[in-house]
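Input record, target 12 of the design panel.
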């Protein structure tokens, strides 16, 4: 792939994807808001993996932040071979009574930024005759857990549509749909991850490996872990009325 730009690369799944790609000798552009944490991570990657690593601090909930990332993606002198749209978060609130600013922030980061960055990156990849786009969706795309599910369903369907549009161009598009993963995701919204059995969690490095391998092989949907692949099959076959009943009140928007 040569070089990859990863959003949300300062922690969790994004950080694991970055290390995985660095170990394969890809140059990296790391994107997140926390500039200090990002620079520290970039420096470690330069020293440990010996790859060229840029730290691009940007808030993807803002127009300027997304534009800075899009400008980097459009560069023809330092082309990006793989775009990883991973930045995201749980809302930690129900829709009714929750903050509308929080809703818009989630929509901007998990939908608008994904659309904008793909729109910026894909033409160059098509022109060069190759490349990859990896969008991080979620198992929640198949459920009905508030606007988070809606955003991730958008990412999943959008990726499928883009993959179909780019068939034959040499550009692969993949949506990875992880189940529970141990990262900062839950603590950031004060959700006790201890409520689920430890066995329900997939390690972030497994998600990273399966996702990157999926793009390389041209898989459009990747669900990491055998048990979650089985669960995805059950969810797809279940009546939506049952899915709605399971989602129920009280867990809407928790991720
Ligand atoms: N953990 C799970 O159980 C799970 C399951 C399925 C899907 N996912 C998805 O996986 C992706 C990664 O989440 P994670 O679990 O790795 O969580 P995480 O450890 O909290 O990492 C989230 C990353 O996104 C970045 N980010 C958040 N808001 C941003 C913004 N406005 N602009 C730029 N960067 C932003 C964060 O960096 P800064 O805070 O420094 O900006 C961080 O690097 C998300 O899309 C999430 O929805 C997670």
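The sequence produced for target 12 reads:
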């Amino acid at each position: 792939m040569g070089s990859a730009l990863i959003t949300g690369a300062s922690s969790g799944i994004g950080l694991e994807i970055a290390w995985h790609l660095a170990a394969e000798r890809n140059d990296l552009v790391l994107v997140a808001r926390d500039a200090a944490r990002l620079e520290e991570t970039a420096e470690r990657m330069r020293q440990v993996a010996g790859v060229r690593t840029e730290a691009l601090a940007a808030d993807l909930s803002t127009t300027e932040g997304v534009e800075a990332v899009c400008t980097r993606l459009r560069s023809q002198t330092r082309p990006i071979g793989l775009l990883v749209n991973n930045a995201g978060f749980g809302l930690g609130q129900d829709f009714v009574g929750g903050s509308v600013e929080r809703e818009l922030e989630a929509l901007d980061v998990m939908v608008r930024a994904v659309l904008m960055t793909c729109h910026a990156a894909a033409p160059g990849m098509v022109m060069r005759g190759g490349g990859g786009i990896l969008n991080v969706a979620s198992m929640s795309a198949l459920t009905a857990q508030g606007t988070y599910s809606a955003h991730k369903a958008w990412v999943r369907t959008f990726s499928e549509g883009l993959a179909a549009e780019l068939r034959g161009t040499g550009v692969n598009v993949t949506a990875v749909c992880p189940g529970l993963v141990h990262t900062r995701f839950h603590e950031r919204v004060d959700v006790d991850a201890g409520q689920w059995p430890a066995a329900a969690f997939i390690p972030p490095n497994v998600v990273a490996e399966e996702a990157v391998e999926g793009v390389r092989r041209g898989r459009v949907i990747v669900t990491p872990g055998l048990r979650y692949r089985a669960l995805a099959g059950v969810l797809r076959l279940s009546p939506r009325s049952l899915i709605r009943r399971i989602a129920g009140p009280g867990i809407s928007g928790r991720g």
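DSSP finds nine helices and seven strands in the chain.
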